[in-house]
Amino acid sequence: MNQYSPSGTAFTAPAKKQLGQHFLADRHYIDSIVRAVNPKPGDRLVEIGPGQGAITLPLLRQHPELTVIEFDRDLIAPLTAAAAPLGALTIIQSDVLRVDFTALAQAEGGSGQIRLVGNLPYNISSPILFHALDHAAVVRDMHFMLQKEVVDRMAAGPGSKVFGRLSVMLQAYCEVTSLFVVPPGAFRPPPKVDSAVVRLVPRDPSTVGIHDARRFAEVVKAAFGQRRKTLRNALNNVVSAEQFAAAGVRPDARAEQLEVAEFVALANAS
Ligand code: SAM
Question: Could you tell me if the CB of 117 is within 6 A of ligand 1?
Answer without folding.
Answer: no
